[in-house]
Amino acid sequence: MAHNREEEVNLLGNTNVEYKMDYDPSILEAFENRHQYRDYFVKFNCPEFTSLCPKTGQPDFATIYISYIPGEKMVESKSLKLYLFSFRNHGDFHEDCMNTILNDLVELMGPRYIEVLGKFTPRGGISIDPYVNYGQPGTKYEKMAEHRLMQHDIYPENIDHR
């Protein structure tokens, strides 16, 4: 049964939103996927992700790409923005941030399939681009995740100094 969208999410349209400066997965909100009969991708491009190096405290900047095939629930985009913003003062390695984002979104939505790619700007002459994914165990999506993991970097990028 479809609910009113107003009853499903609280942050969208709310002008008194607090921008949390510390990691907080409780910010995330989900709403009903009204098209569960169909597989389709939803992709978020998040070019202003910032976290902190856990050793030096220096900022790390990245574009985060989140793609998923929804199951029963979908993530609301404003809550996702605020959630990603909550990493601003969070000290963690790039790989840990991407796995944390994936884990939190899997817990929130129970997607059929999801992948998270972080393309971090270089620091010290090296850029790091962690890729993580998940497919529902025992389904074709689990096989899809395995295949996409093996193929995720089949077309390496040109050096562009971002």
What's the layout of helices and strands?
Elements: H1 5-8, E1 30-32, E2 42-52, E3 59-69, E4 73-75, H2 77-85, H3 94-109, E5 113-120, E6 131-135, H4 140-151
Antiparallel strand pairs: 1-4, 2-3, 3-5, 5-6
Overall description:
One of its GO terms (biological process) is tRNA queuosine(34) biosynthetic process. Its EC number is 1.7.1.13. This is NADPH-dependent 7-cyano-7-deazaguanine reductase. Pfam families: QueF. The protein has 162 residues and is α+β, with helices and mostly antiparallel strands. It has a single domain, classed as GTP Cyclohydrolase I, domain 2, CATH 3.30.1130.10. Helix content is 25%, strand content 25%. The protein has helices at residues 5-8, 77-85, 94-109, 140-151, and strands at 30-32, 42-52, 59-69, 73-75, 113-120, 131-135. A 4-stranded antiparallel β-sheet has the order 2-3-5-6, sandwiched between helices. A two-stranded antiparallel ribbon has the order 1-4. The longest helix is centred in the middle third of the chain and has 16 residues, at 94-109. It starts with a helix and ends in an 11-residue tail after the last helix. The model has no long low-confidence stretch (mean pLDDT 89).
